[in-house]
Fold these 4 entries.
Entry 1:
Amino acid sequence: MQKNISAAQPAQAIDKKQHIKRMIPKIVLYVILIFFAVLWLIPFLFALSTSFAYNNNLYNGEPVIGIYHKEYNWMWHPMTFVNYLDLFRKYNVIGGFVNSILYIIAPLFVGVFTSAMAAYGFARLRFPGRIPMFFTLLSTILLPGVITMVPSYIMYSVGYGWSNTPLPLIIPGMFGSAMTMFLIRQYFLGFPKELEEAAQLDGMGWWGIFIRIALPLSMPVLITQLILSFNGMYNDYLGPLLYVGTTPELRTLQLILKSIPTIGVTPYPLMMAGAIVALIPTFILYGLAQKFFTEGIVLTGIKE
Amino acid sequence: MQTTETLQAQAGQESVLALAPRRHHKMNRRKRNEYIMGWVFIAPLTIGFLLFTAVPLVLAIYYSFTSYDLFSPPQWIGLANFAEIFAGDTDWYMRSLLNALIYTIGVPLGAAISLVIAAMLCNISRGSTVLRMIFYIPTICGSVAITFIWQWMFASHYGILWEFLESLGFQLTNAFGFLDEERFMSSMIFMGLWAGVGGSLLLFYSSLQNISHDLYDAAALDGANGFQKFWHITMPGVSPVLFYVLLTGIVGSFQAFTQFQVMTGDVISEYSVMPVWWIYRYITGEWGYRYGLASAMGLLLGLILIVISAVQFIASKYWVKY
């Protein structure tokens, strides 16, 4: 049938055929991409579905071990809220969340501010020692954390006497981070020189320019850094494990989550409920600031 | 060092040119103010660096040559810690380095997958933002939650992967498990790919968007085929991102800890041990408070990573096109 298309046919039909021909690779592309996207989503859907499953419970007088029953499949099975109730009843999820937030607030806001200060100093001021200091700080980004892991622990617990307190999680972060400084600096470098010149003519000092002009102008990058820092600290596991892991009432949400016993008869539905609850703050944060973030990661990407 | 000097020289020249003879005194005062304020601005980060990075770094080197158990002062023992590590007396530390090396296979694999998906995303117009978001989601999620989810994905008999293999007609027995000795590392790499591809995908995507279409059109006129276009236009275009992804990925995967500790329920074994996990066991004192030895282990891994990074930086001069 296709071979019968001849030159005698109206031009429109040929166009249409070529159009379809051109569409085929596009469609194939979409099919592959959607297939991969579904693959990427399945673990989350599986976890969400399981978090509502019965865990070693009777259902309608029949033993239904969650979704293990052969009558049901991973998506369709009797649903219950009992795992979420158990999670909040047996594990100090709320206390853990409060601890996480308490440990994050100071290093988050103070840390991003001090990083921005250093970023401004390096980007806009000329002073002796600027360049060696900048490269020294920059090189700490590439310094593998494993080198300082043990001595830091000794220093905090023996040197500073901070054992079994959250201070090692809070205080160092308040001094800022070289990575955050570097990314904010990229943004400050883009400001025109006239910015400071005009402000200085008005009698404004460097500090005034930083607080009243530079910071308000760099809100997108600051918010991006706040989100990245928050999420990084919120998801941190090794730090809290080392410093507050042995004191139950000081544990962060990640440590509470990990305290769900996974040996023996594994309570998968309960674990999945825990995982979902722990992911909610991250999703809310990124959902709210999605626009800032997608702009920010392009702005502060490594392209520059 | 050379660049530092030239930059300083340039900065000096600029300020010399800016100095008008008459206003010498005033300019000096303004310049001194700039000097002081410069250091004020960088003071917190610099103090933080000295207290929380420089001091532990010096201590790391010192402790590595000592025997130290927290209760009595460190005793200088020279290279004995390193000798013990290389002699293999420290059980699985050397094995953990090998495991980390195996785990690193995921880094180039992940880079390839994210580059291919990013290239596909560049060729569609509608829905690319949503798809990028979907791939990105796992990278923002906490490792503990992700590992819980994958523990369940990998679960025997009831996990979704098990059911999937059974539905394909595989007869799986009790002897089979995704987290068994032979399959543990591949499963962890698999999970790592799912969790990590989204970040590098975003970077590849934006760098692919920056490659001019004219280059491809010109190449097409010259009769270049798909592979030639990829090798001569796409690869140089994305090479800075590829370099960054490989550099940070290798350093990161060598220091992976959370996934392994959570996945195994903190039960350490020869096929699952990772360096940071092994060192962590010394910190918690489960294997005696041998802080000198543990510092040496950390320093050794750190130096290995610094050498790997340095080699990558040197090699990048030949293949990365900025």
Entry 2:
Amino acid sequence: MRELGWPYLEKLSRQRVMQVQSSTDPPKKLSLGERAVMADGNEYGIVLLKEAGQPVEPVYPTEGTPTISGPTGIFAGAPHPNAAKLFQAWLHTRETQQFFVDFTGQYSLHAQVQPKAGRRKLADIKLMKEDPAGVEAMTEEIKTRYARLFRV
Amino acid sequence: MTTTTNPTPKPRIDWTRPVLWLFAAVLILLILLPLSWLAVYAFTDKNRHPTLQNFVTLFSNPDFLDPLLTTAIIATTSALICCVVAAPISWLVSRTDMPGRQTIRALVTASFVTPPFLGAVAWELLAAPNSGLLNQLYRLFAGEDADALFNIYSMTGIIFVISCYTFPFVFVLVANALDTMPGELEDASAILGGNAWTTARRVTIPLALPALVAGALIAFLHAMTLFGSPAILALPAGFHTMTTKIWSLFQYPPKLELAAAAAVPLLVLTILLLQGQKALLGRRGYSVIGGKYGAPRRVKLRGWRWAALGFCLLVLLNPVFLPYLALLNAAFSPNATTLVTPSTATLHNIVFVFTELSSTQLALKNTVILGTATATIGTILALVIAYVTTRKVIAGHRVLGFLATAPVAVPGIVLGVGLFLSYTRPPFVLYGTLWILLLAFLTINLPSAYQQLQAAFATIHPELEEASRILGATRLQALRQITAPLLRTGVIATWCFIFIGVMRELSAAIAVLGIAMLVITFAVVLAVNQIPMSGGNAGAKLRNG
């Protein structure tokens, strides 16, 4: 929205876009042959489909790609904070992160993690900047306006 | 039943009181707690100050009014379609000499036990505008570029799928009314010179009408409160129903007050419609006064017999044959929307779901645990309440009976909201555990379990127990040695009924699902979302096959 503005979304909404429930849905509609092109969704869905031999191809827009980061944390009132710290330490080891990357097709910020052969490096994708605070302040407006446009 | 070791010679007064209070407390906890929290949230703001603002928002904001209108259209149309389809089939099955009547009954039951969301998934495979098997078939004849013949992602599509899995409600009621109609009334009409059409118009139809209207109300109710089919079809179609809207209110940032308020109209309408249904069916008694009467004679269809069977099978193509074929195809095909051939057939999907997909094992295990626990606890609870109410052993038995049947009037999604509000706070923090699902399933299944067991008790005359008591047995001994063996079939049937109900139920689970909790019905929904389409359907297929 910030990068492209509402006029872009308004034009998009007039193109019989199919909205689905989850960001993991679009690759499946694609794989079933229901639609030929998907936007948004998760890149790893497409990457995994391609690696499974399906005739699909990810396209990285020159304007930039929106990113979703998956933060982890420990509750302040966690009943076993030390166990949680231990888990976090394990979660962020090179081996664990490498496993996640290989298995799920997502990206890790761990410097020593290598992308699987044939997958694009995170550094080679032009990323849009995340702005959680800005989004949170406008959540209601964005959701309402989007819902009216795309009727979801 | 709590004091099986009580040695006192006259145990009646001693243990019936505690039992009443124990079971009354359990029932109040199960039913009144969620509904009270629902009321509290619906009529207060975020700081719990009383307000009607939630309802003002609900009835003035188009984001809520549209789903309300959509739901009304879907429910009304589905109810009408159900009647139009179910009435002739029940007449053919119940009152004519059409061949294969038992088979047709069995097939209607098959569509009855199909989870609505599974039916929706199957119809997606059949009638999605581009990838649907039926549309692919149509394009073989009409050309590659032809517009889709069917579009399941539309209002019509949703009404169609809902009708497919709602018409059995009407069928059961109407067929039952026709089965039990006294044959003499029709004979009398015939003797007085009425021809077949006059008899149908003046006698048969008026007698069956209350059941048909009652069936329509139930169908309306079911279509209105259904979550499974709209959850899968409404969003791609570009609209919300009330149930999917309530569900979306739980997404971040959750608006629990609005969700509670949106559930209130569903609850009120349900109670009103059930009252209406009761009044209609209650009045039916006037028509069948008389002594013993013979079974109605079957209408001879002669040359039309096979045409009638063809009609029934054609209708059942939609809820049963086509969807199950699509699921079967998906289970063995590498791609769910490609027709399987002997050379492409694969067991990969099934192997994947049962050996590789890590959530399947957990989901199967949790489903079995939940099903067994709910069925066992539910049967015991229903058994005690049914005993208390049929034998009138203690004062206040009416209240227990009322509480046990009350959940009938609470739609799954409403109960889900109530359960969420009740069990995410002290003293009962159950969110994210199996227990909240246990409570949900227990509450949902209690009314039917209670009614089944009450009917079973009613058929056992108290004289049998009294004879045992006169011969010196205590109440518990009489129960164990006389009543229990006679009730065995009923109890087993109720247990199985609840167990299957748990397998089938989704709508309460959806609102209370913590991330780590997977029941297999839910795993299928998740599977549809998270693993290759074909794998998900293998699971779906096998669960039902």
Entry 3:
Amino acid sequence: MHIIRIKNLTKRFPMGKGAFTALRNVSLNFAEGEFAGLIGPSGSGKTTLLNIIGSLDAPSDGSVEVLGQSIGALNAKEAARLRKENMGFIFQSYNLLQVHTVYENVEFPLLLLKFGADKRRKMVLDALEWVGLTDKEKSKPPQLSGGECQRVAIARAMVKRPAMVLADEPTANLDAANSHNILKTMEKLNRELKTTFVFATHDDKVINYLQRKIFLLDGRVDKDETIRPTTTGDHVARN
Amino acid sequence: MWLAIKLAYRNLIGAGLRTWLNVLVLSFSFVVIIWLKGVMTGWDHQAKTDMTNYEIGGGQYWHEAYDPFDPLSLYDSHAPIPEAVRAEVQAGDMEPMLFLQGHIFPQGRMMPAIIKGIKPDQSIFKLPAASLDTVTDAIPAFIGAMMATSSRLEVGDRTTIRWRDANGTFDAAEILITAIFHSNVPSAEAAQVYIPLEKLWDISLLEGEATVLTFRDSEAERAELSGWVLKPKKLLTKSVDDMIKTKNAGQSVLYGILLLLAMLAIFDTQVLSIFRRQKEIGTYIALGYTRKEVVGLFTVEGTMHAVLAAVVSAAYGLPFLAWQARVGWTMPIDASQFGMAMAQTLYPVYSVGLVISTVLILTVTTAIVSYVPSRKIAKMSPTEALRGKLQ
């Protein structure tokens, strides 16, 4: 089952009097439970594609359907709801709320979903356990190492058990040991919770963990390889 | 909304010193505005009470020729007490007073004075009229503290008083100061000598006449009297209202400066927040907020400064305001020089309405000041914000 369907996607950004084309005629499908990566050098369009899948940006041409909803047709409220209910985000620089504790950071998506206090508490503790940070729940991000911050970000992305997690260069600020820890954690969550992970990366450490590698070059899909079957047993559709 | 309040609270508390500095500035505005307004209310209350007690009672009838700003009008501003109010006068619910232009000669100096005739057994005013009920070879008289200061007269002193009777003949006699009163009402004290009404009738040849009739009950319906002008209490205290209004207008400038300082701090914080917290704004949107909701969150966050300020104000402001209400505020300059009913020490009077209106005005102003810069968020690109790129 495909949870993301991208057809002839083009994205242009205004630049001076003309426009810069970040994505050209991209067509891709992602199945449920995939552990896939958009790989390419800077400027290849991977973050742009991730942002459009995440309904943070809209296509210029073509269509992107996420969980049956057309991204281009969503208004701000509908897009926000799609993100809130179905997506988790992991960023290169963690993007944690600096004045909130680890617990409050992880709890945030559940507050948006208006879950009750008891349910929230249980889900946050579960998420912190997944990433091995139960002893840090009262710490604030400035008191944590980079690796710990990224684990908090993973917990925040996963706590609501979303259908998909979009991770933009999640290991870019981490050393090798921390990167492997993070990736193992995400791989485990992908396996156990059947969450779809889509990465945007050019880090070899991440690439080695991917089950599917989509190489982008100058805004086009250059190569799309599947290394292993997805956790659900589906095989990844190829371009 | 509840979530925005919860998050805003967390953000503010988390921001630490920056928040508390803003809150302190704002709370200072709260306390000073409430205190100043309390002083004004207290002054208004005190001035009207003193005027009622020492000068105007529940309202007055003035002889139609009487003009308190024209001493010469006193020669003509008297007439027999009207038949219609004699019963009230008999019952002690209306006090006739006769005013006469005259002079006193303390220590050989000549000072103009209005000679006021008042009944020693009157009960409308808090004036020491009973002190006139004494047996002495001179005319018993009492004066106000202002008059005592300017004439250097003390209780027991004697001095000469001169007046013109109904026929225009000058006459003089000796008076004995039997009491000195303190009223905070300059118009009841300055250049005035109070003597027994019957004595004044006698020496002025104006038997049964009055210049002003003061009644006790300010609420009762009053009829028009021919040759007399009805002056209700509200009209007689209008000068106080006008002065308070003028003072309030002047103080609005101070409120404005205080508010401006507090709002500048809030505005500055909001603008700085929006520039410094771009990534955070992007993160909120990525996690499921709409841009409008983030605008709401930042507005609530700014507005919450006012709420925290109200709490902080209560912590140190309530004891301060209560202490001030007890000990009052003593003016550093001589209040009697103001020329109107004003005590040297003013006791602030606070009302629930005053506190609520001040809190509301400051909170609404803070909300507006917080909202204006926050609107910029609505135009931000979430993808740029996530990268922390200034927009």
Entry 4:
Amino acid sequence: MFYRLSGIHHTRYESASQLWPIPADRWQVYALLALALAAPLLVSDLYLTSYLLPWLIMTSAALSLTLLMGIAGQLHFGFAAVMAIGAYTSIHLVRFGLPFELALLGAGLMAALIGGVFGAAALRVKGLYLVMATLAMQYLVDWIIVNVPAISGGAQATLQTPRTTFLFLPLHKDEVRYYVALLWVVLVTLLILNIKRTSFGRALVAVRDKDFAAAVIGINIVRYKLMAFFTSSFLGGVTGAVLAYCFYQAVTPEQFSFNVSIQIVAMVLVGGLGSVLGAYLGAAFVLLVPIVLTNAVAYLAGLGLLSASTNLLAHIPLMVYGGLIIGFLLFEPLGLAKIYDNLRKYFLVWPFRHARS
Amino acid sequence: MAPSRDGAMTTKNSEAQGRGVVAKHQNAARDRVLVCESVSRWFGGLQALKEVDLVIARGEILGLVGPNGSGKTTLVNSITGFYPPQQGRILFEGQEIHRLKPHQIAQRGIARTFQNVALFKGMSVLDNILLGRHNFMRPSVLGSLFYWWWAQKEEVRQRAKVEEIIDLLQLESVRDEMVEYIPLGLQKRVELARALASEPRFLVLDEPMAGMNQEEKEYMVRFILDAHEALGLTILLIEHHMDVVTAICDRLVVLNNGVKIKEGTPHETINDPAVVAAYIGKVNHAA
């Protein structure tokens, strides 16, 4: 109904391995991209900077983590610390006089180096023990940032991001901040999509699924685990810098606390492990659903339909939110992306139920 | 990283040691693809392999048989680097490999399949076989990022190679299926395809026909012989089906309790009293 599969026959390997081999899918993506580009004209500044912007940036974070957790299969519960390293590095580099573009690169490299060192733990441990190792990273990095004044500017301090430009555009303007975040999320999306269809991604998945079978076809397991940590931490570091400059325009250690790590893990899990679309949906779910629920409960209470104590009213959104997460994961453990995929496949061949995509 | 080809290896060694003698030695070494010299392996108090000697000649199909628990798979795991021998040496084309990691051994040109199918679930048949081409690809993050200018060429080139193997093993119809959804017989064939994709010179097949019916077995034998002939392979075959082993193997080696008890042509081997005794107990006491 929504798609026409008939008449699509790829006769070249290049076209068969496109990102979206079905034209209808491709047009859908172009339309979404056009909407995203036109967003500053379509929505108010408030929506742009307090809903769309954080959504895009946290999607980048979730995408960076899904490369590590979903594709390479290495659990990481300290990803906010990786982002913190990127954020603080970029601020100090710009203060030092480097242009913002180079500072982003430096932020990524610093995060990748430190993240890679902790990733070396992954060579020895798996599963829950890896969770512990990455948790240790979260607390160590937090502690160092808070207790080294040269980094944080002193305990409880807030570092304002210095005024700077990105490709000669002033970064304090709302539209510029939005477009920088959009550019970054598009870049990360393309990278992850391309990784998934090339030898690098296949090798990562092989190491994740059956490491002995990966070794027998010549894959160096140690090397690929480290590469996964390095790449993912690089992306996380740049995302941290983008978050600091484009959204908060300041950094404090609390912005990158353990809670944020858990939120990013939740985005990846609710969206669907290893899925690009899942990162978008998961980030939207984790960021936006609490806001929607709070507003909905306040609205119902305002209408007098929901009479409860203010204390309970404050907690109802949280309870519903928790219930929704459990519900979605029970209904489809592979996340929101899988739910979308099931629907898409259903309509792809509708009304012929037994035809296949 | 591409495995070093014969030519490169010969040149390197002959430069080091002087030509004529070494070239002759190299030829002899190259005719003996794999040499195991008194390989021993313990697991705690259990000695799984006791000083096993084995020589496999180029182009040969060697059958490795023996009752359950006789050490066949342990020997294969020693050769492929999973359980390095605690004593003895293993040489592949004249070079020691028993201290190498499994992936390094794979890069030298040894491929294997597993007794329990070890395919990557959630990936298509095509992607599984493409993974076999890993040694010929240069995966990199930047290559993936700039896919259209960088990785695409390589992907397409390797895809063409994979299609040749798909053609050889007649897997066209399941090319885009997820591996977990195809029947076991086909899964084993995909695993063979993945092993062949790495262009090995020496192939180890660990019970490629376990759990198959007669028809699937016949197909598999045909594909093994086809690959053997078309790709000039040397094959070590572990198999319990005696009809298969006697039909396609040039020589048999029999293991029992980690000891090599017999080596020879298939027919003289399976009729050997010691071998029969290992399988079904002593003939004298049976009556």
